[in-house]
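Dear colleagues,

As part of the handover before I leave the project, I'm documenting each prediction I ran so the next person doesn't have to rerun anything. This entry is a single chain, and its sequence is reproduced below.
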Amino acid sequence: MGTSRLRFDQIGQWSQIKLDIVREYARAYSTILTRQASLKHVYIDAFAGAGIHQLKSTGGLVSGSPLNALHVEPPFHEIHLIDLDGAKIDNLREIVGDRANVFFYQEDCNRILLEKVFPRVRYEDYRRGLCLLDPYGLNLNWEVLAKAGEMKTIEIFLNFPIMDMNRNALWSNATGVAQEDAERMTAFWGDTSWRDEVYVQQPGLFGGEDWLKSGGNEKIVRAFQKRLQDVAGFTEVPKPIPMRNSRNATVYYLFFASHNKIGGRIAGDILRKYGLLLQKRGRR
C-alpha cells in the first residue's frame, strides 16, 4: 500500500478519541444538512495524512479522518483532502480510488484553502463545509481561521498545538525564544498580541527588559477561544478539551468553532462527553 517513502503517523489514545469526536459530529452534521435539499455540504481535511494511522500501543492500523469522512452516512457531496507530503497523498489516492466527488491536493493548506477550496463553499452558492485543521505543529496560519469565520459557511475542528507552542515559543522567558519560532507563533495567532496574553514585562537582572511567562495553558487557551469569537467572528466556540498523552501531559486542545447554534450545541455536548471520558481515564 502506498510508496516506499511512506511512514504512517503513529497515534496515541488521545488521537483515537479525536477521531471519534470528529466522526460523531460529522455524522450529525451530514444528517442535518442533508435534510435541507437546497444545500450542498462538503468535508475538508487540511492535514489529511495517509488515511491510515498506526497505534503506538499495539502497532495496529486504524482509519484516519479522511476514510472516516468517506464512510459517513448520509454522505458528503464533496470531500477535499490536502497534505504537503506527496507520499501520503499518493497513499490516499490508492485507498480512495477514482471518485468524482473526492479532490486531492499535494499543497500547503495555508494557500490552497484560501485559493481553491474555501471558494467552493460560498454562502451564495448554497454550500456549507466542515473543516478539520489538524496541524503537525505551528504550521497553520491565522488567515485560514479568519477566512472561515468571515465566510460564515464553514465549521471547524482545530487542534490547538499547545505542546509545540510551549516547547518552541512560550518559554518561561520570551527573550530566549528563537526569532523563527516567535514568527511561527505570530503567524498562527495572527499578530503579536499573544505576547501580551502570555507574558509580563519586568526589568532584567543585567539591564533591559525580560518577558516572563505568567499563567499556564488555560490562560492562553481562553485567550485563543476569545480570539476566535471576537476577531475571527465565530459565534459558537464551546470550551475546548485538553488531549493528554500517556504521561498525562497535554499535547493539544481540541477546539470547535461555528456560526450555527445547533452545531455549537451538538459539538459542545460531544466535547463534554469525551472530555469526561478522558478525565476518568486519566485518574486510573
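The chain has a mean pLDDT of 91. The radius of gyration is 19 Å.

All the best with the project,
I.
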